[in-house]
Write a structure and sequence with these properties.
Length: 224
Amino acid sequence: MKKFGEFWVPDADARGARNRRKMEGAFVGKQGSIEPLLKAIEIMQAQPGAETLADRSAIDAGANVGSYTRVMARHFAHVLSLEPSPDTFACLERNVFEWGILPKVQPYMAAVSDSRSYVRMGTSFGRLSITRKVTGKGNIPALALDSFGLQNVGLLKLDVEGFEEKALIGAKALIADSRPYVFMEVKPKEEEASERPYAAQNLLLGMGYEVIAELGANRLYKPV
């Protein structure tokens, strides 16, 4: 792993001049591309009942090296930070330790899905670790969020490269019990080219949610 600013990143993200420039732009003198999440939290804090957010938990599914996890730790009582790729998880774990946000943050090496399975993560050669997605069966655990037994969750963030629908199915009990805000990556171009466009969003709307903000490639959903 290599360090840029205050962030350890996988060797794959520091390989080649183009990737190194991206890492320098994201992490040297910066805390990553956190602006969409900061805006989402600002919107949440303006909603009725916002005074309870600081006492609730947050889930960062698809945490990568932890830039969003770090923000969540400032605003929530507990953060479950999930990252499936072993080399990226090692960086996440080291970052969380060096930032001094243990035990408030619980790093966990797993993908999220609708049930327990074991998967493999991959991406095209030379691409950043943040673009990795499930490519088949392997030895990395994939778990339903309901299996963690979390209560009083205030924010569920999903950036899981196409597994958003399965992640929501695996979190139905959590969503029914806690009614968290959901901050989810939605890429219209990819959605409209898929066999089931906006499947994850439609599932979430069917659970009694509405879109209250579009923030870059992410949407913020509020329980109605």
